[in-house]
């Protein structure tokens, strides 16, 4: 971010090449933001298996950490911490972005090092600072549990179980975690009473100030990499260098994936280092550092009001009942 599970705008007006007056924006069609569509489940059995694995703490060395630990689906798909807590209470290096609507991202992780959700899903399992396991041990744990063996065989039509199947199933479940029917989506679809006058004024400010240059599309972000600190430098508390860590190019230093603003009301704190505790702080910092604009208190409040209309319907499902370990299942080692 750039707002963590949340806000980043780059040199917005420059991207458009013109200063956008209210009349110009209103004349534009369609709007720069589009409604989110409900998820379509193509393979229910694969998704159900992925749901179990998403909540499965035995994929970690401690037997305590699951995907849901850092991407809590009861908390907007994140953990509401500046940086996540890993194995043995290790402090993570970066803020956990929301998993909600993450299938709309052009890539995964802040620096985009994973091309898609399946590539991302295997990373935390083997990361010593996160789940601290190995892919081999994760497969051994699942293979030792007959109920998992049977479910994997039913879904994948194979006698053997591997990490590719694990990550494919997790990704399939995550693809269902979309949040349609926000109040703003209803407004986009024609219900002009779905948002208030102040919220609409906030959206006009959001557009006219240039925020939509980077925060656009159905996810209101997630579809480009931008530099954090365009007009003025951002002093980060995180050592993360953004895209440079992937490309090796100095020009990509401090370029991060633009976060989605969907459900941003729920995904505090903000930016890749989690330094902005509130939306009010995030809007102020983004205005000054990305756009060179000092929002008044009233303008800031209206933009924040608009951002809160982006909270959609949260995923609803029955919590999975995980199969019990057997005598052959490797035991967790939480204190090593």
TrEMBL record:
It comes from the Bacteria. Residues 45-153, 197-311 form the Cytochrome c domain. Its main location: periplasm. Binds 2 heme groups. Heme c 2 binds at residues 211, 214-215, 286. Heme c 1 binds at residues 67, 70-71, 87. Keywords: Electron transport, Heme, Iron, Metal-binding, Oxidoreductase, Periplasm, Peroxidase, Signal, Transport. Its cofactor is heme. The keyword Cytoplasm does not apply. Binds 2 heme groups per subunit. GO terms for molecular function: cytochrome-c peroxidase activity; electron transfer activity; heme binding; metal ion binding. InterPro entries: Cyt_c-like_dom, Cyt_c-like_dom_sf, Cytochrome_c_Peroxidase/MauG, Di-haem_cyt_c_peroxidsae, MauG/Cytc_peroxidase. This is Cytochrome C biogenesis protein CcsA. It comes from Vitreoscilla filiformis. The lineage of its organism: Bacteria, Pseudomonadati, Pseudomonadota, Betaproteobacteria, Neisseriales.
């Amino acid at each position: 971010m750039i707002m963590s599970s949340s806000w980043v705008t780059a040199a917005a007006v420059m991207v458009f090449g013109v200063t956008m007056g209210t009349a110009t924006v209103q004349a534009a069609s369609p709007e720069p933001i589009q409604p989110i569509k409900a998820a379509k489940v193509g393979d229910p059995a694969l998704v159900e298996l992925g749901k179990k694995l998403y909540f499965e703490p035995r994929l970690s060395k401690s037997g305590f950490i699951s995907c849901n630990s850092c991407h809590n689906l009861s908390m907007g798909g994140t953990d509401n911490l500046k940086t996540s807590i890993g194995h043995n209470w290790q402090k993570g290096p970066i803020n956990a972005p929301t998993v909600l609507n993450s299938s709309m991202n052009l890539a995964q992780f802040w620096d985009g090092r994973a091309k898609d959700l399946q590539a991302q899903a295997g990373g935390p399992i083997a990361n010593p600072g996160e789940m601290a396991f190995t892919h081999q041990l994760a497969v051994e744990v699942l293979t030792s549990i007959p109920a998992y063996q049977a479910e994997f065989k039913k879904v994948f039509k194979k006698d053997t179980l591997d990490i590719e199947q694990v990550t494919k199933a997790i990704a399939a479940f995550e693809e269902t975690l979309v949040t349609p029917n926000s109040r703003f989506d209803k407004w986009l679809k024609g219900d002009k009473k779905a948002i208030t006058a102040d919220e609409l004024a906030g959206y006009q400010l959001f557009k006219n100030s240039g925020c939509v240059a980077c925060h656009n599309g159905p996810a209101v972000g997630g579809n480009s990499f931008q530099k954090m600190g365009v007009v003025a430098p951002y002093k980060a508390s995180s050592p993360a260098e953004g895209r440079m860590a992937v490309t090796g190019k100095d020009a990509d230093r401090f370029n991060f994936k633009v976060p989605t603003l969907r459900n941003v009301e729920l995904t505090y704190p903000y930016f890749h280092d989690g330094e902005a505790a509130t939306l009010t702080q995030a809007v102020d910092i983004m205005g000054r550092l990305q756009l060179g604009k000092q929002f008044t208190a009233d303008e800031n409040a209206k933009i924040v009001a608009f951002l809160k209309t982006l909270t959609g319907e949260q995923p609803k499902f029955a919590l999975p009942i995980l199969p019990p370990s057997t005598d052959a299942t490797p035991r967790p080692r939480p204190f090593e």
